[in-house]
Structure formats: structure tokens, C-alpha cells
Amino acid sequence: MSLPKFERPENGPTASTVRKRERLTPNMLFQFVTLILLYTIF
């Protein structure tokens, strides 16, 4: 939980890690939606 505070500076590999984290959340949401759709179909 304290890692994001350390990754605040937007310069170097830290910025890329933050971007990856931001991209991870929507991906998980998409997977959740797909799972719900599959459950509704079956």
C-alpha cells in the first residue's frame, strides 16, 4: 500500500510500473465482466 507513494515521481521505470498498474485494474474488471456474461449464458 505504501509502494504507490514511493512510485510518485514520473521519471524512469517507476512511471512505467504505475502505468502497468493502472492498466491492470481495467483488465481485471473486463475479465470479471466476461465471467459474469459466461455465467448468464450458461
What does this structure look like?
This protein is mostly helical and 42 residues long. It is rod-shaped and about 40 Å long. The longest helix has 29 residues, at 13-41. The chain has one domain (3-41). The protein contains 2 helices and no strands. Helices cover 79% and strands 0% of the residues.
Secondary-structure element series: HH
Total domains, how many? 1
Q: What does the average pLDDT come to?
A: 68
Say how many strands there are: 0
The main β sheet shows up as:
none
Number of helices: 2
Molecular shape: rod-shaped
Strand portion: under 5%
Features:
mainly alpha, 79% helix, single chain
Question: What is this entry, summarized?
Answer:
This protein is an all-alpha fold.
How would you summarize the topology of this molecule?
Layout: H1 3-6, H2 13-41
